[in-house]
Amino acid sequence: MGERSHGLQSWIDRLSEAELPALAAVVQDLQQMARQDDSSVQQLADVLLRDATLTSKVLKVANSVYYNPSQEPIRTISRAIVLIGFENVRLIGLSVSLIDSLLGNAQREQLPELLARSFHAAVQARNVAGYLLARSQEEVFIAALLHNLGELAFWGCGGDQADELASVLAQPGVDAERAVRDVLGTSFRQLTLGLVRNWNLGELASLAHAGPAQGDPAVKAVSLGVRISEAALKGWDSADMNLLVGQLANLIGLSTEEALQQVLASADEAVKVAATFGASKLCHLIPQTDPEQIRLQREQRQARLLQPDPKVTQQALQELRMLESRKADINLVLDALLRGLHQGVGLERVMVAVLSDQRSRFSVRRAVGEGTERWLNEFTLPASQPEQPNLFSYVLRTRETMWMGVPASYSLNDLVTRPMREWLGQGMFFIAPLLVGKREIGVIYADCRLSGRALRHEQFVAFQYFAQAASRCLEAMAQKS
After folding, report:
1. 8-302, what's its fold?
2. β-pair partners for 350
3. CA 26 to chain CA mean position, Å
4. Residues 14-49 pLDDT 10s
5. Which of 60, 92, 326, 383 matches a 20 to 30 Å C-alpha distance to 212?
């Protein structure tokens, strides 16, 4: 095709009228239905039935194990809507139209690569949305799928200019965004937004380009899905991916390990979805989650992390029992306590903070774990003044051992004061009172903040045991003196 286009409007006209009019029409009609609450089964069926190949492909996808696990045969569009839902059929129609229009004339490797990334982003985003939204997860899927619509349309229909851009981008050290502007007269992002507006693809598809700062959870889900699909190309253990997994964990309330599992499961699902939609040539372009590779990466990472050691736990508890009967020196008690909690239970940072200066403040008597030397020398926290209570004093007063950062303790979050957060950081921790009979001595604190791992129930149980054993030793010492 000899025609040259330059500038945003020129590309929108060309793509909508000359290159992709059928896609534009179907996509517009299907999107229109998302915004009309009274869209009927018949209207949706009518749009899909206009094109016989589209109808047969939608039915084929609807009959796949992925959408129809009961495998009850679906022979009509209206039956598909009843069995697998209006939104799912709309989503299938949209996705199949996109694949057909674009992969039909995919001469360049850029297009399948980008389409694979779009599918991966869509599945990641929908699964994040599953945690955040009661509905409109399909809308999130579509917004993520269309996130690079301008670039997809260009590589599919850009003719000579696509060849021209491909050869410019192949040169080492090229500024990609500038090259795109020179050849197209606009950016891919502007082209996407232009098509989204021109084809009425809905607010979510444009909002997602405004960046994740928007407070809307649907926008966050789209943005995360898109960024995860990009980071996956650098490796599941890349710095970018670690950062995104951390953000996901915070957003949906999982540990980083669980969030990574969620991301990997979504990548596997994306491969299934691409195959289901008849785009199996895209499957090998979605980063593989080969368990062997990931296991090796994870083992290397875990090897750098502290692991629980039941043997050390037992020995330390036995030692504390023995010290209780011998009424031993306080330093031996603290040695056994810290060794048991750190090397035994696998808690990365442990400290014993005691009341000092006429019981006016807490200072650190002993600490273990990376970076805790600073606590020993500098940590200080006022013992509660009535006007600003803090958790250290609260735990001593109520004699309760607490697991902070889980829903059961959310009501006490206000007691984690700013000075505490500045010293300890954000996230889960355990805290227990250290008592001699009725006399308040201080608190025992522990966390796994270095790796960001979630604390586990069995660690909390062991922490309680150690705290009680240490208090019994101190009580025995007091009686002896």
Report:
1. Hypothetical protein af1432 (1.10.3210)
2. 368, 446
3. 33
4. 888 777 777 777 777 777 776 555 667 788 888 888
5. 92
